[in-house]
Amino acid sequence: MNVPSNESIDARLARVERLFWIDRDEATQAARDWLIELGVVDVDGVNGEPVDYSSVEIGLGRGAVARRLRVLLANISRTRGDPSRSAAEVQQILAWAERHGEVALQSRCHDVLGSVFEMVGDPALALEHAVRVNDLIDESEVPLMRAAARLCLADALGSAGSFDESRRRYNEALRLVIDDTDTNIRYMILNNLGYTEYLAGNHEAALETVEHLIALSEANSRPIGMYARDTIARVYLTAGRLDEAERMLLPAIETANDDPNPDAVSAALVTLAEVYRTQGRLDAAQRVIDQCATLAAGHGLVRWLTEVAREQAESYAANLDYRRAFEAYRSYHAQSVALGASENEARGRILEAMFQTAESRRESERYRELAERDPLTSLHNRRFVDEHLSIAAIRSGEGGPCFAIAMIDIDHFKRINDALSHAVGDEVLRKLGEILKLAANRVAGGIAARLGGEEFLLILPGADAAEARERFEEARSDIADYDWTPITAGLPVTASIGVALAPEDGVQTSDLLRAADVRLYVAKRDGRNRVVHTATIQASAAR
């Protein structure tokens, strides 16, 4: 894939996601190529299983991009009949996005999950996810993505029977992309709106909508897809315009063996059989029924095998062959029951896969939590600090919130170990951890960590210079004023503190830690038990 050398990550993401609405084969290739660039070599997972992105060690920004691309691929997979895998993988990515505050990624995940549950006939879960998409989508997003969010909600509302609300969201979506001539989203919106009006019994509105769809396709020389042909034909059939319905569906006969979407062709053939039956052309109806049955059976399309059984019964009845009609109705009933069981099973498989993914995530998060905690003090450790300080620094450098850090070192800690024992030293470290945890909790999202030995770190999100001065002085005072006598038998415990601010002292983790470390050195050099916010010595000075 040719990528413009000056194209930003956001612009490239928007372009690749836009391809979903233009050419899904191109979108697949573009996403795969980019994933390989990011170092995700096993793009499709091991033996077809989803990639576990919690184990993909790439930087935060690149990690979010990789997961956006995987959600795109999962959505394409969903449109091609693989909802079970899509749901489990996207749920896993959603958990990562929630943990890292990646709102745009969360909205993409909910979009796919909403479509999956709408696809397998669970309107409650579909609506739940569709609402979350629209809660999360930012108004700064491109109109195409906002329209996609409205489309997801409109589909879910229509499936739940809320036709008025569904219609309103379809119209909102259409207004957002009214001038978008490159993608197919306008055609999908009009198709789904027309079908919703048809289901609601609003025949005039349905007819107006499908004629708008036809006019738009003709004006832009865009062929009408098979699902849209089926929608248009159903509306024409209801309006008594049988010849027009037939003409709209004839391509289904011609392309039945070659069309890449047999589900759409089967839907169109069932409707065409009904058109012929309504016209009294029962021989033509039977030929189409036989063709549809062969196609649906060859692709395992249980829904359309069931529908063609119903149409077969209707055709026999129209031909006054009541014995065969009765047998066909019995077959239809049995297949209808089987279809309901199959749909329930499909929902069950998806929910089970999502449950197993959630259980696996909880287990991995438990081990992750253990790996990111200091066993002595239960504070976060350096591994946790490295990841979260990097995230905060990146966001601050991109215009996000400021924050402050403080490196904290216990004064004369060796004297406590030597004079009283290492067990007492450990107790001092544990108690200091409790004091620092309380200090961190005074600021929303504050973090207390032990870096190693007697060295600790406080991170205060959103704290500017004035608040940092106040909060870190409080922490120093809390340590010095604590009654250490029961633990140290009268030996005092104090701490020296060096402070750094982002973005003033840098937007790289290494720059911030170096600045705080230098100021910690100055605090110890100048008498200990103090907080130092500025210093002018060389960063290479040793403590």
UniProtKB/TrEMBL annotation:
<dbReference type="InterPro" id="IPR043128">
    <property type="entry name" value="Rev_trsase/Diguanyl_cyclase"/>
</dbReference>
<protein>
    <submittedName>
        <fullName>GGDEF domain-containing protein</fullName>
    </submittedName>
</protein>
<dbReference type="Pfam" id="PF17874">
    <property type="entry name" value="TPR_MalT"/>
</dbReference>
<dbReference type="InterPro" id="IPR029787">
    <property type="entry name" value="Nucleotide_cyclase"/>
</dbReference>
<dbReference type="InterPro" id="IPR019734">
    <property type="entry name" value="TPR_rpt"/>
</dbReference>
<dbReference type="InterPro" id="IPR011990">
    <property type="entry name" value="TPR-like_helical_dom_sf"/>
</dbReference>
<dbReference type="InterPro" id="IPR050469">
    <property type="entry name" value="Diguanylate_Cyclase"/>
</dbReference>
<dbReference type="InterPro" id="IPR000160">
    <property type="entry name" value="GGDEF_dom"/>
</dbReference>
<dbReference type="InterPro" id="IPR041617">
    <property type="entry name" value="TPR_MalT"/>
</dbReference>
<feature type="domain" description="GGDEF">
    <location>
        <begin position="401"/>
        <end position="536"/>
    </location>
</feature>
<dbReference type="Pfam" id="PF00990">
    <property type="entry name" value="GGDEF"/>
</dbReference>
